[in-house]
Automatic annotation (TrEMBL):
Residues 66-154 form the ABM domain. It comes from Oceanobacillus arenosus. Pfam families: ABM (PF03992). This is Antibiotic biosynthesis monooxygenase. Gene3D superfamilies: 3.30.70.100. SUPFAM superfamilies: Dimeric alpha+beta barrel. One of its GO terms (molecular function) is monooxygenase activity.
């Protein structure tokens, strides 16, 4: 299955959502911009969006919550090893209170994977980051960026957009 994402102002994204009511479009915001995300195997609606293959998915997306996207550039020759690492580890986050959904997204174009998690709240995500389970899940990561990262990974965080937010 594929996933699609784009960024823009919340007004622009609301117009997209209105135009494409046949698609479950999830809107999210942060202090800098808005983002729209949907999963669908056939239909591409963004003219300037990003397209991904869903490599791993657990949990179910909800219309509310807190989103964390780890954007990780991975060199092409290292992508199989990167995916293997995710496919062969326990996803301890799934068992954490407040966990909603996880997606590992492989880019169709470019080299930046997205490790996307949805949480009930930012506090739930913070609890995960400070947990023993998080330390165990990340204990074998290198102290410095691996050679397969051509650029620095970065994190983007969002709050799911709720229509009442406009009031």
């Amino acid at each position: 299955m594929k996933a699609y994402m784009t960024n823009g102002t919340i007004d622009f994204l609301l117009k997209l959502k209105e135009k494409h009511q046949d698609i479950q479009l999830y809107l999210m915001t942060n202090s800098e911009n808005g983002a729209a995300y949907y999963e669908n195997s056939n239909k591409k609606i963004f003219s300037a969006g990003r397209e991904y293959e869903i490599v791993i998915e657990t949990g179910v997306w909800k219309d509310e919550g807190y989103i964390v996207m780890n954007n990780i550039p991975v060199q092409e020759e290292e992508q199989p090893a990167f995916e293997y690492r995710f496919k062969n580890r326990k996803n301890a986050a799934d068992a954490m209170p407040g966990f909603t959904a996880f997606r590992l997204l492989r880019p169709i174009k470019g080299n930046t994977y997205v490790v996307l998690t949805q949480w009930h709240s930012s506090k739930d995500f913070s609890n995960w980051k400070n947990s023993e389970q998080f330390k165990q899940a990340h204990k074998n990561q290198a102290a410095k960026p691996s050679a397969y990262f051509p650029e620095r990974p970065f994190i983007t965080e969002y709050q799911m957009y709720v229509e009442e937010d406009r009031a």
